Amino acid sequence: MGFPNLLGPPRSPDLNPIENIWSILKDRLNKWHPQPELREGMAEAIQKECRQISEVHPLTFVDSMPE
User: Fold this and answer.
1) What does each C-alpha distance from 35 to 21, 27, 29, 53, 62 come to in angstroms?
2) Are 18 and 65 in contact (CB under 8 A)?
3) Residue 16, phi then psi, degrees to nearest 5
4) What pLDDT was estimated at residue 47?
5) Who contacts 17 (Cβ-Cβ below 8 Å, separation ≥6)?
6) Domain ranges within the chain, ordered by starting residue
7) Taking the C-alpha atoms of 34, 37, 41 and 47 in order, what is their torsion angle to the nearest 10 degrees?
8) Could you report the per-residue pLDDT of 4-48, keeping only the tens digit for each?
9) How far apart are CA 38 and CA 22, in angstroms?
10) Looking at the chain, which runs of residues are DSSP E strands?
11) Are 60 and 53 a contacting pair, CB within 8 Å?
12) Within 13 Å of residue 37, how many CA atoms lie on the same side as its CB?
């Protein structure tokens, strides 16, 4: 009994589904006009957009990963 070798580096972003969520969040924040300028405004924008991301997104990315 053993573990199969995975193709790719051991710390590859491809193996970390949170990277996909960061990409979605970045895309949504880039659509804000005007862009928040102060730290407080950016924190508020991030929180608002995080609440808009469905729980389905992370599960979809995890399910799409090879076994």
Assistant:
1) 20, 12, 8, 19, 31
2) no
3) -120, 100
4) 93
5) 58, 61, 62, 65
6) 37-67
7) 80
8) 666 666 676 666 777 778 888 999 999 999 988 899 999 999 999
9) 20
10) none
11) no
12) 1
Tokens 């051991």 -> residue: 10
* Token duo for residue 10: 């051991």
Query: Position 33: which residue type?
Result: H
Q: Tokens standing for 13?
A: 């972003």
Q: Specify the residue for token string 């929180």.
A: 47
Residue 20 — left, alpha, or beta (φ > 0 → left; ψ -120 to 50 → alpha)? alpha
Between the alpha carbon of residue 3 and those of residues 6, 12, 35, the distances in Å are 9, 18, 47
To the question of pTM greater than 0.90 for the whole model, the response is no
For residue 62 the two structure tokens come to 């995890």
Q: How does residue 61 score in pLDDT terms, banded at 50, 70 and 90?
A: low
